[in-house]
From TrEMBL:
Signal keyword on record: yes
Record-annotated Glycosyl hydrolase-like domain positions: 6-292
Protein name: Glycosyl hydrolase-like 10 domain-containing protein
TM ranges: none
One of the Pfam families matching this protein, by short name: GHL10
Keywords linked to the UniProt accession: Signal
Entry annotated with the keyword Signal: yes
Organism: Sunxiuqinia dokdonensis
Length: 455
């Protein structure tokens, strides 16, 4: 696919996501120890040109960041930390780290992985993330559910040597605890590294939807999942939240309401009890919604809307994520229309994260009507990155109408610009316009005094 075709495809998708009200994109830019950006550490991804290591002729990561920010969407950079190759017999690009450090790599099933038990691999992954963090204006670092791979029946993960070399204080029978600590160490190390380089960049994870079953742990959920984070992926996500290593969690609740083994409603309420003053969103399985599905609930047009409505009744849940974006190209039994005209008809502000920063920026100055039908304002100047205004909210209401800043119907738009060209109307209605500033963590300034403009 040519550069123009790739970029056109991105424009179409992002325009669609903007149209239906999305305010963040989680973009997978390191699928398997490869890169959607120029890197001195890892080769270009095969998914760009079909050939590993081949330069696509532009910087896809920078392109996507720019296009998301133009549309006032956050850009979350999605890394797969431990996966090296989906198929072990796929050729790797010349210069791949696997050739220099064969001892870092293990084969499990048909795939290759970095061994999480090695301090060297944890440091390598941290170096990759920090490199992107330093060079790109991203809003978040994101991992999904892949840490140790999902278990394969009859095949043990080949980490006997690393356990023997780096077992620390763990006994022979504590292999699983050791694996969990390896992932703990990775998450803790990354969390500290991210905040030391750019304190405003969030660190989030979308884990498998079940931490543990109650049958295995009284703290677990009333589920009977075949795999769980804790017992099979060695990902103790609750510990990570308790320790404040994460800024947000998006558990993948990819089951329908009422599903016996893993009920969407039951799990929504279980996860709300484990936020530990961090942000909780919910992951929805858009990919399952299909009129041809063998499961009745996924053939019904109200399944996804009802899931969103259910989460809105739970104050601890701050929003929704939808997997995956490509399914918005097709008709998801009318779900796009429901989002655009009902559920997401008005703009939504990204939730604040006061544990990172709770100081709002200064109120925009000199908010006034410019020449013609233009509203303009000036940002306050500051050298503190956390206090800089990066976006503005323009509120609009008819003169005489009671203005409520908590009612999103009054948000005319959210913009990076410092002016707004207004559309002239023939009936000359007087409107009040107000402007506030948002910083990188979406703390909102005081709202300006109203400016009255007839349109």
């Amino acid at each position: 696919m040519s550069i123009a075709s790739q970029q056109q495809e991105a424009h179409v998708l992002l325009n669609k996501l903007q149209q239906i009200g999305m305010n963040a994109v989680i973009f997978q830019m390191r699928p398997a120890s490869d890169a959607f950006y120029p890197s001195d550490i890892e080769p270009w991804s095969r998914y760009l040109t079909g050939t590993p290591g081949q330069d696509p002729g532009y910087d896809p990561l920078q392109f996507w960041i720019d296009e998301c920010h133009k549309r006032n969407m956050e850009f979350h950079a999605w890394f797969n930390p431990f996966r090296v190759a989906l198929k072990y017999d796929e050729p790797l690009a010349a210069g791949h780290v696997a050739f220099e450090h064969e001892d870092w790599i293990v084969k499990y099933g048909n795939s290759l992985y970095f061994d999480p038990g090695l301090p060297e691999t944890r440091q390598f992954i941290t170096d990759v993330v920090v490199d992107v963090l330093r060079r790109y204006d991203i809003d978040a670092i994101h991992f999904d559910d892949y840490f140790y791979p999902y278990p394969i029946i009859g095949e043990a993960f080949p980490d006997t040597l690393s356990f023997k070399k780096y077992r620390r204080n763990f006994a022979e029978e504590q292999l699983e605890d050791w694996r969990r600590e390896n992932v703990d160490l990775t998450i803790e190390q990354l969390s500290k590294a991210i905040k030391s380089v750019k304190p405003w960049v969030k660190f989030g994870i979308s884990p498998f939807g079940v931490w543990r079953n109650m049958a295995d742990d009284e703290r677990g959920s009333l589920t009977s999942a075949g795999n769980t984070n804790y017992d099979h992926l060695y990902a103790d996500v609750i510990k990570w939240m308790e320790n404040g290593w994460l800024d947000y969690l998006v558990p993948q609740l990819y089951w329908h309401i009422g599903f016996p083994a893993a009920n969407f409603e039951v799990l929504s309420h279980w996860w709300k009890e484990h936020t530990y003053d961090r942000a909780l969103y919910v992951g929805h399985s858009v990919y399952k919604c299909d009129p041809a599905s063998s499961i009745l609930e996924w053939r019904q047009c109200n399944q996804l809307p009802n899931q969103v409505r259910l989460t809105r009744k739970i104050p601890e849940i701050k929003g929704s994520a939808f997997y995956s974006a490509k399914h918005f190209y097709r008709d998801i039994i009318g779900f796009q229309d429901t989002l655009e005209t009902k559920l997401y008809a008005h703009p939504a502000l990204v939730p604040e994260m006061p544990w990172i920063d709770n100081q709002p920026p200064a109120t925009p100055r000199k908010v006034k009507k410019g020449w013609g039908k233009v509203l303009k304002w000036k940002p306050d100047k500051t050298e503190n990155e956390l206090d800089k205004a990066v976006r503005y909210i323009v509120y609009k209401n008819k003169v005489g109408e009671v203005f409520d800043p908590n009612d999103t119907r009054f948000i005319s738009l959210i913009t990076k610009e410092t002016k707004l060209n207004l559309t002239k109307r023939t009936n000359k209605i007087a409107y009040e316009f107000r402007v506030s500033a948002l910083d990188r963590l979406h703390n909102e300034s005081e709202i300006s005094e109203p400016v009255i403009i007839k349109l």
